[in-house]
Structures are given as C-alpha cells and as structure tokens.
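step: validate -> pass
step: tokenize input -> pass
step: predict -> running
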Amino acid sequence: MTVRTAVPDRSGAAPTGLRRASAWAGAAGTLIPGLLLCLGITAVAQALQAGEEHLTGHPYVEALVLAILLGTAVRTAWVPGARYKAGIAFSAKQVLEVAVTLLGAAVSLGAIVASGPALLAGIVGAVALTILASCALCRALGLPVRMALLIACGNAICGNSAIAAVAPVIGADSRDVAAAIAFTAVLGVLMVLGLPLFVPLVGFNEHQYGVLAGLTVYAVPQVLAATVPLGPLATQVGTLVKLVRVLMLGPVVLALSLLAPCLPAAGGSAPGGARRRPGFFKLVPWFILGFLALASLRSLGLIPDGWVGPISRLAGFLTIVSMAALGLGVDVRVLAQVGGRVTMAVTASLLVLLVIAVLLIRGLGLG
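step: predict -> pass
step: emit ->
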C-alpha cells in the first residue's frame, strides 16, 4: 500500500483553504462580543415581556420596544469598546436584513394588489409631497441645499438608508451626513415608542394605523416594533406600505442624480461636479428583493403553511436582536450636539410627514 504524504508548501505559507478558514474564523471572532451583548439585551427584553404576560396577561410593552429602551440605556450609561463595534454593527444591519427577508414568507403579494391602485398612488404622492415640503421647510430655516435634501429624503423614505444612498449622489458633506443620520436615529426610536400613543388622538383602526406606521416610521424593523402592539393586521399592512415606500428610493435617487449637476457647489454658487451613482443594490436593497422572492413563493403555495409559524418566530427573534443593536447605537446626549436649526428642520419635516399621512388615510377612506 502506498502512503501519500502531504508535500509542504515551500514558501512556508499555509494552504489556501487553511488561510481562508483562518480568515473566516477571525472575522467571526470579531463579531462575537457585540453579538453576545445584543443577545444578552434580547434575553432580558424577552424575560421582561414574559414577566408582563405572567402578571397582567398581556405585554403592554413588547420585547421589541424593550430591546430598544434597554440598548439605549446601556449606550447612554456606557460606551461599548472597539471590540463590540463589529458585532453591534452586524446585528443592526445584516441580522435585521435577514429578519426582513424572512418576513416575506408570511406575506401574500395578493395583499398588495388588494390594497388597490389608490393606496399605491397615495404612497408615491405622499413621498413626493413630503420631500418637496421638507426641502422648503429646511431652506426656510436657512439650511444648505444638500442638508435639506438629506433630511427630506431621510424622513420621506427610509431614514438612514435613504440618507446614505442620497449623500454620494448629491455630493453631501460628511458632517452634514453625520448630523442627519445621528438625529434621524434618535427620532426613529422616538417614533417607534410614541406612534402607538397617537392612535387614540386620531381614532384609527388597526388597518389605518398600519398604513400610518408604514408611511411614517423610518425602517422596516421599526415598523414591526411600532405595529406589533396593535395586532397582526397592523403589522402586515404597515410592512407592505413601508416596503412600497422603500422602493421609492430608486426613482428618487435617479431623479437626484439627474439634478445633481445643477446644484451649487458645496463652497459656492457654481454647479457641482460629477457625482457617484450608487449601484443597483443601493437603489433596491437585497433584503427587499429577498422579501419579495419569499412573498412570491408564499403566494404561489411553494412555502408550506407549517413552515410559516417557525419562520415568523425566527424573524421576530432576529428583529429583537437588531432592535437591541439599534438601541446601542443611540446616545440620547447626541441631541445636545446637534444644531438648533437642524433639530427644528428634522422635527418639522417629520410633523409634515405625519400630517400628510393622516390626510392621505382620511382622504382615501382607508379602513
């Protein structure tokens, strides 16, 4: 019998497979501390919800919201070190994207069609009107054109994702981007916590509230946190409306890329130079495509009914993890570091969006 022995690499380097495995292990290792921190906050949030259910029979504050509050409290009291940052960022982005993708398994695309062309047209109109009104408000408060566009698109479409997509197209200054994202992160959490309290003031039913949340809350996972306390119908409707709103990012970025050469340069009145146009997956994020793919499979009956429950529970758990990470990224003290005009502009723009959303729901007679 011939015994084959491995021939050592004369260069002294490890085989390619080992190098790749080592690189992957190293990358995974950097995620563990932050991921464990988010999982710990998630466990506490779920335990608190279970305690509520045991004592009152109903979770008045859902684990999703508790995770945000706990994460924000931790971040305000203690700044996680560098070893936690990769895992927190992974939980806030990739984990939530997987969660949103999995949600598609519980949604039928027939619900979008059943919502009717009036609602779809209303969403498009609400986004366009909010951008125009917000830009006008920001300019009236003396903000630069690019800052006004960042705030307007962030509020009208999907918060930080819209700001990040629009910034390179219009050549926005990094300080303006940082200020817009910082304040949007704080307002996003406040919207999740405060929007359910808005329902008694306007007398909306569950379906109408779902439309309101989908039109006003910044991120898809935040829509879940804002609608779960109201019921499953609000969650489904809110998610669908929000996804249609997110898909508006593509046309808006395309329009701004055409208008960008006409914008004044950052330091003067001359038109700006060439701008970078984001790729396809910046305009239409992969998780939106994944959501639509799973929703299509569900609509075609290719996802068995028995799978829907476990997939939904997994999506819910991952969403709580991502909301803990979201809370860990919010320091309430950041409010004191943002200029008064920016604060007024972002808040006023959000109020405009709320008013437009309420008028749209009333005008279309939804619910």
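step: describe -> The longest helix spans residues 16-56.
step: cleanup -> pass
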